[in-house]
Amino acid sequence: MKKTILAFLLLGSLLIMACNHRSEPIIKIKFDVTNLSERRFSEIVTYGLEDPKKEDFKVINFSVQIPNSQDFRNIKIKFPSTDRIYALANSYRYDRLWYFDETLSPKDSTKFVLYYKGLDENDIKKMFGSLIVVVSWTSESGEYNEKSLSIDNYIQFK
């Protein structure tokens, strides 16, 4: 009887472990659009803008995280280039990209201030929705895998 119970427990444990094994990494993308703080607004050079207000700017935090990266080999994140983000932002009626946070790693995160005056949430989605993050990895069996994710699914306004 004890051997039967032990066998069922062992079989159950193996099933749980097999179900928890993922064939691809967990990819967490954040593209959060938030209000600018008063302190941050006081640091921004607004030369050339007519009657600039704090509400005319938004902060965008853009990051990619892979919390279970230890379960995969050769994980690479192809993050959109600063030049691509800059070109998209500044192609929309005015120079919109006001500031990049250079202290963050350009490989998996960036933070920037956007001149938001005259825009709405749909404009932001149109502006940045075409950005793509590509994540590649090698499975335990040695198979190369790649996944492309469009940013438009992750844009959040807070």
The strand order across the widest sheet is 4-5-2-1-8
Count of β-strands:
8
The oligomeric status of these chains comes to single chain
Order of helices and strands: HEHEEHEEHEEE
Number of domains: 1
Question: Span from first to last CA?
Answer: 58 Å
Main sheet record: 5 strands, mixed
Q: Percent of residues in helical segments?
A: 25-40%
Which parts are unreliable, with pLDDT below 50 for 5 consecutive residues or more? none
DSSP strand content: 25-35%
Spatial shape: elongated
Number of helices: 4
> Structural class of the helix and strand makeup?
alpha+beta
Whole-angstrom Rg: 22 Å
Mean pLDDT over all positions:
81
Written account of the structure:
The chain has 158 residues and is α+β, with helices and mostly antiparallel strands. It has one domain. It has four helices and eight strands, in the order αβαββαββαβββ. The strands form two sheets. It has a five-stranded mixed sheet, with helices on one face. A three-stranded antiparallel sheet has the order 3-6-7, with no helix packed on it. Strand 6 (132-138) and strand 7 (144-150) form a beta hairpin.
Give the secondary structure arrangement, pairings included.
Elements: H1 2-20, E1 28-35, H2 38-43, E2 57-65, E3 73-78, H3 82-90, E4 97-100, E5 109-115, H4 121-128, E6 132-138, E7 144-150, E8 155-157
Parallel strand pairs: 1-8
Antiparallel strand pairs: 1-2, 2-5, 3-6, 4-5, 6-7
Considering the chains and any ligands shown, give keywords for the structure.
alpha+beta; 4 helices; five-stranded mixed beta sheet; three-stranded antiparallel beta sheet; 158 residues; elongated
